[in-house]
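Researcher: We're teaching a course module on how sequence relates to structure. For the next exercise, students receive a sequence and then see the predicted structure as tokens, so they can try to spot secondary structure elements on their own. Here is the exercise chain.
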Amino acid sequence: MEKFAGYAANITGSTTAIVIAFVIILAWACAGPFFHYSETWQLVINTGTTIITFLMVFLIQKSQNKESLAVQLKLNEIIAAQERASNRLIDVEGLTEDELKTIHQYYCALKQKAELEDSLQESHSIEDAEINHEFKQEQSLHKRKNKKANTQQHRKGA
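Model: And here is the predicted structure for the students to work with:
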């Protein structure tokens, strides 16, 4: 069934399938005058499209699930391979919506801290960003104190 679903998804998503579907609709429309636009003529296209749509919903969902899982596995591999990446994000798709919102809030805070960075090239985990932010705040405070002390010394010397 797995192979059939993959094969069917590839075929139905092809340009050839779209052309065939268009030709079928065109043939049905052209047949209307011969059948005097009867209810049977309309029922044929309605039944056919309903059945195809019903089957395609499941086929598309199966393909999308497989594709999503493959992407998630690739992302998990990237996270696991990065020394400074937070391993808490591996298999994050299994969390509840509330848990995802909490992690999203952390990343919003990280983004705000990253905007204070001088370089666009730097990337940090949440923990690294917290440490770097605190370090920079301490350095900034230290610079202000030194500047204030130098200004006071300069005034005393003048």
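Model: If you want an answer key for the exercise: Residues 94 and 132 are 30 Å apart (CA to CA). The chain has a mean pLDDT of 85.
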